[in-house]
């Protein structure tokens, strides 16, 4: 779980990234507010308040809303404005399937390129996540979780691959995952397992831990969104 922050801030990002436009800043802030639960599912987005908060005109706000509406994160309704879309299990499942294909592969690549300093940073982030979970600091938990994962993905040696993962993360309902009660303890253990595999330099184990981490999140979301357990849709025999 993580809050959504700009690609400019992810671990290992290039300093040559062009500066963000006002529209991009609004998009980033909206993603952060939704991922952190500040803007709840189904709640209306107040354009004027958002423009005032970000000290910008209404034009980039409207541009940002159109972009996020095209992505399905927001829903426009005639005469009622724009609201945050409800999380849909079928869409979540599709994003999960794509993440299962890409992220374990990125972890395998990263396992060969991580430095001792990277591993120390990852260990610090795991400690920070556990502390944030214990104190109920959802914002810190979101942000640190994201930095933890992208520390690895940024070491995969392929910027295009990292960008694709970034796009998939932007479509995942982190805010919903945060209210699944059993995930807090499970996630802590899973991150520790990932860190142990990385320290051992075991690329296969790191990929396997990542697969289990992603699957556990999907199971928790399914129970929350549709009210019952599901089989892993990544299994080719599961419809």
Descriptive overview:
This protein has about 240 residues and is mostly helical. The protein has two domains: about 5-85, Arc Repressor Mutant, subunit A (Orthogonal Bundle), CATH 1.10.10; about 90-225, GntR ligand-binding domain-like (Four Helix Bundle (Hemerythrin (Met), subunit A)). The chain has helices at about 20-35, 45-55, 60-70, 90-110, 115-135, 140-155, 160-170, 175-180, 185-200, 205-225; strands spanning about 75, 80-85. A two-stranded antiparallel sheet has the order 1-2. Strand 1 and strand 2 form a beta hairpin. The protein is globular and about 55 Å long. The two termini are about 25 Å apart. The model is unreliable at about 1-15 (pLDDT under 50).
CATH homologous superfamily grouping of the largest domain: GntR ligand-binding domain-like
> What is the residue-averaged pLDDT?
89
Return the CATH topology of the largest domain. Four Helix Bundle (Hemerythrin (Met), subunit A)
> At CATH's second level, what is the architecture of the largest domain?
Up-down Bundle
Uncertain segments of ≥5 residues (pLDDT<50)?
1-16
Please provide the count of β strands: 2
Helix content, binned percent: 55-70%
Structural class: mainly alpha
How does the major sheet shape up?
2 strands, antiparallel
Provide the CATH top-level class of the largest domain. Mainly Alpha
Kindly report how far apart the N and C termini lie: 26 Å
Radius of gyration computed on alpha carbons: 18 Å
- Number of separate helices: 10
Task: Please summarize what this structure is.
This protein has 239 residues and is mainly α. Helix content is 64%, strand content 3%.
């Amino acid at each position: 779980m993580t809050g959504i922050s700009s690609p400019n801030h992810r671990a290992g990002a290039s300093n040559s990234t062009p500066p963000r436009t006002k529209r991009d800043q609004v998009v980033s802030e909206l993603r952060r507010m939704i991922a952190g639960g500040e803007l709840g599912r189904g709640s209306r987005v107040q354009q004027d308040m958002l423009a005032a908060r970000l000290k910008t005109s209404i034009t980039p706000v409207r541009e940002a809303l159109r972009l996020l509406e095209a992505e399905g994160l927001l829903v426009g309704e005639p005469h009622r404005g724009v609201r945050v879309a409800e999380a849909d299990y079928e869409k979540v499942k599709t994003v999960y399937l794509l993440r299962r294909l890409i992220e374990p592969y990125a972890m395998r690549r990263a396992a060969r390129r991580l430095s001792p300093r990277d591993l120390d940073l990852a260990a610090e982030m795991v400690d920070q996540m556990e502390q944030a979970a214990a104190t109920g600091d959802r914002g810190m938990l979101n942000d640190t979780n994201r930095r933890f994962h992208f520390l690895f993905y940024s070491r995969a040696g392929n910027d295009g691959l990292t960008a694709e993962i970034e796009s998939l993360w932007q479509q995942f309902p982190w805010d919903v995952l945060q209210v699944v009660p059993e995930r807090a303890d499970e996630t802590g253990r899973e991150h520790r397992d990932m860190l142990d595999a990385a320290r051992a330099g075991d690329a296969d184990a790191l990929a396997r831990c990542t697969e289990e981490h992603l699957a556990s999140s999907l199971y928790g979301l399914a129970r929350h969104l549709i009210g019952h357990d599901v089989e892993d849709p990544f299994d080719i025999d599961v419809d």
